[in-house]
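Section 5.1 Outputs to date
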Amino acid sequence: MTRNAINKTTLLLLVLVISVLFLAMVRHFLMALLLAGIFSAMAHPLYRRFEKWLGGRRSLASITTLLVFIIVLILPLGGLLGVITTEAIKVGQSVAPLVEKLNTEPAAFPDMLSSIPFYEQILPYRETIIRKAGEVVGIISKFFINGLSSVTMGTMNFFLLTFVFLYAMFFFLIDGNRLLNKILYYLPLEDRDERRMLDKFTSVTRATLKGTAVIGVLQGGLAGLAFAVVGISSAVFWGTIMAVLSIIPGIGTALVWVPAAIILAAGGYWIKAIGLAVFCGVVVGSIDNILRPRLVGKDTEMHDLLILFATLGGISFFGIVGVIIGPILAALFVTIWEIYGTAFKDVLPAVVTTDGEDQNERK
């Protein structure tokens, strides 16, 4: 092995080791940095406009952009979070007596079941239902206890990450293009492939944010309004929950309004139950079926099934921000394999499809 090869091998090892150590050191802030990069890219046209109006003062333009971002997005979300918290407390207070009654008076649950119109049909499964209900009560109790015990640490961590997010976004708006060009320089890819991945990243991010926001607001707002009309308390809270769950294509809001309709029917409010089910199933459900392919699928150029698994996988892996990151990773996954297929098309064997057409020739 030549001296030059030894030097390059040593350099690559040092780059790998030091990079891993650095990423491990800042791992708690990586998500905030990633989100800062995504939102700064989305806000960059506005930043450019402010920079032009302010005579090229980049720092002032970045601060102005951040102020607009805070006023338009963060403050309304903070106010909504306050309303949701208040409604959540009301829901918890209304559920607490029921949970306490089920814990202290186990016989009360069979009495509640007897009030259901189809009690005779579920009577053979009463013991199983009672056992499962007890498990659910235990899970709910642990959830509230764990949530209350971690709320202080969660709040401090939230404010810290929000500061990191805004601080990083300030510099990304100013030097984002320079940093991006530096990253692209270190990638040993053709310029067209780098731009292809960058364009895919941008289009998927824009489509995901736009689709998630529009569909969530419409579905959550309409479903929450329906809850208020039929007399379900804490409609704002449940509407917000359905807005969040709308990120799950097809079945998101149904996870809330279907049990609500069943509870109304069990209480004898058949007209309200049928009206809620018809409105949410037809009107609210059609929003997802009509808008999602146009707002998300059209720009991402991905199949609905892939979007579904990318969203669910992103949530399970990254938390709520996986709504954005999941589809982005899925799009980059598809794009990098397309680039691989183009780069190695001379050595990859031809694949004949079921209709007898050569797939390589079709490309």
